[in-house]
Amino acid sequence: MKGVFDLYTARDTFLHRLDPRVKILAVLFLSLLGFIMTNLIPLFTLLCFIILLLYLTRSTFSKAYFALKFVLRLMVLITVLWPLFDQSGTPVLAALGPIKITEPAIWRGLTSAIRIGCLATVWYILMFTTTQRDLVRALVKMGLRYDFGLALAISLRFIPTFGFTIESIKDAQRARGLEFDKGSIIRRSKNYIAVLIPAVVYALRTAETLSLSLQSRAYGARKDRTYMREIRMRSSDLVSLVIVVLLFAIPAVAKFVFGAAI
After folding, report:
1. Does 225 map to a domain?
2. Which of 30 and 132 is assigned the larger pLDDT?
3. Peptide bond before residue 91 is cis, with ω within 30 degrees of 0
4. From CA 260, how far away is CA 250, in angstroms rounded?
5. By the 8 A CB rule, do 153 and 6 touch?
6. 133: how many CB neighbours lie within 10 A of its CB?
7. What is the pTM of this model?
8. Which residues form the domain of 153?
9. What confidence tier does 5 reach under pLDDT thresholds 50, 70, 90?
10. Which of 7, 88, 169, 220 is 20 to 30 Å from 256 at the Cα level?
11. Based on the domain organization, do 9 and 50 belong to the same domain?
12. Is residue 21 located within the same domain as residue 45?
């Protein structure tokens, strides 16, 4: 369960050593680049570049497979369904009653699938190479209020714990003879009430315990904060940020200023 929500893999790579603020900005710029590109070849080039960066993260195969299998399925689904709903253009390659499959629709579907692949895949670079603590710390350094950052950090911390608790409750109910996979949909939905109620009680108790823990540590007594670990920009981080900005700015200027088809 933890691997589902925490995709970080500890490695000593250049991407891991980058300042998390640089990685956040890089992911945002690459996502915007995927939006402004409209042609198949530039988008495919961008997707290959993103996959290369994913390879350089040296993440474990299990985590990479878990992340990318959903992206690949979505891309295939878009490629297959797009020509069925977009019937504009010629030539018509196939026709079945009112449904027409046109060549331009196929290319538009493939282009849209690659764009979605870029937008979905690029965020895994950040998750594979940045711990949850550094991610929240970077967001706070970029202007996010500290209490919002703390809430985000606590949420990320307790999502896998809450998932383990739900699985434990389900195992306990199965031991009492409750079946979750048999019967009609209505019956199975009613059976999950036996999981929902203990899970809600556990969540309320956990929230109360966290509240008492924060109060006992005088949270909010002082507005200024101190941190055990600070993140600072290095020269390599600044160079990387400049490269990322140029990767975004050059195609953007070429399209919106000079009218280049990208």
Report:
1. no
2. 30
3. yes
4. 11
5. no
6. 14
7. 0.79
8. 145-216
9. low
10. 88
11. yes
12. yes
